[in-house]
Amino acid sequence: MKRALHRGAVLTAALTALSLSLVACGDDKSGDGGGGGKDPIVIGQVGNYSGQIPGLAGQGYGLQAWVKATNAAGGVDGHQIELHTADAKGDPASEVSQVTQMIGRYKPAAFVGMGLSTIAGSAPTVNKAGIPVIGGNTNDVAWAVDPGLYATGAGLLGTYLQGFFAVPSAGTKTGLVYCKESAGCTGVKTMMFDLGLSKANGGDPVYSAEASLAAPSFTAQCIAAQQAGVQVLAVAFDTSNVIRLAKDCDKQGYHPVYAESGTVPGDSLAAVPAMEGTLAGQADAPWFLTSGPVADQTAAMKKYFPKVPVDSTTVSGWTAGAALGRAIENYLGKNPGGTVDAAAIKKGLGMFKSETLGGLTPPLTFTSSGVQKQTNCAFSIKIQDGKWVQNGTDPVCPPDSIQSTLDSALAALSKG
């Protein structure tokens, strides 16, 4: 059992699990473009399309949908996007190998929408090559400490503040049940209780318990949380086991407000009556929106990948592509006819000043080099009348009064 919080493993299997039947995409080339007189812009993407934790594969498909839709519309300033993908299969060693091979073989100008549990392993490789990484699983502390990584959405702490650490009103009694199988689960406990983020967010943390996902029942945890007076119960499980726990609590007449983050919130959760009122945080605009750029993403997914469910991961992949496109436009706007390479894309990213990509992200501000400061603003959603709805229309930002606590927590996580 791992209790130590390892850098780059803050969110792993239990928080990203989503059972999909997906094909491997090793050395796949996607584009649907061609034509035109301008050179294509080569990018790479490595993700977990198969293996034990394929729950982030949607990021790859969301990115591919953006590439196909963009190329079909003429590309970015006339440049087609040439995307090469590879399947890490949930294996950190394979991830590094795939990234290294892709750099040597294709010389990508950027890695985009990296659907990996952690990018800490390959970060030194891409940084040495001077290649920016744009978007991916930002529920990973590596995005806040490694240079060259550009998080296209809320960072780890921002998403969790609106999710696991959500506090509807000051003084709300909060609790947590977390799985013992994943460092990501125990990491939630570390942040929520040991680093004091629930309390800093206005909550009164009164209960935490570890549980095995293989347990036949979570009744004992439900009773203990109820006896502790927990009003908002964070559950660091995968989706299917969150539902199991909620049903067990329902049988005991216990109906707390559940709190979730990452990829766990989805349509299957909203369909369960016991989950009514659940709160969750999202790094990017919610997948269920029917207007704006999210609707464009949904339409593209239905056109190009009709069998892949639209969820927070597909929006994340699409958003990463949109950020790439904006960076290219920014650079070429200042350097018409210039060569779009890794350095050029970094310069384009450095022009992001409170950029929201049309409402896809919280305001993003980047520099052309170094470690990027993450935003702690995130989208807040909840289950209401059996469906997900957005809490307000804008990302929610934590008060300035807790910034020092957030900084201390991030520093502690980076050393873990």
Features:
Leu-bd, globular, 2 domains, Rossmann fold, signal, alpha/beta, 416 residues, single chain, 16% strand, disordered N terminus, six-stranded mixed beta sheet, Leucine-binding protein domain-containing protein, seven-stranded mixed beta sheet
Explain the layout of strands and helices.
Blueprint: H1 13-16, E1 28-30, E2 41-47, H2 57-72, E3 81-87, H3 92-106, E4 110-114, H4 123-128, E5 133-136, H5 142-145, E6 149-150, H6 156-162, E7 173-179, H7 183-194, H8 197-200, E8 204-211, H9 219-227, E9 232-236, H10 239-251, E10 257-260, H11 267-270, E11 279-282, H12 293-304, H13 312-334, H14 342-349, E12 379-384, E13 387-390, H15 403-415
Parallel strand pairs: 2-3, 2-4, 4-5, 5-6, 7-8, 7-9, 9-10, 10-11
Antiparallel strand pairs: 1-3, 11-12, 12-13
Helix pairs in contact: 2-12, 2-13, 9-10, 13-14
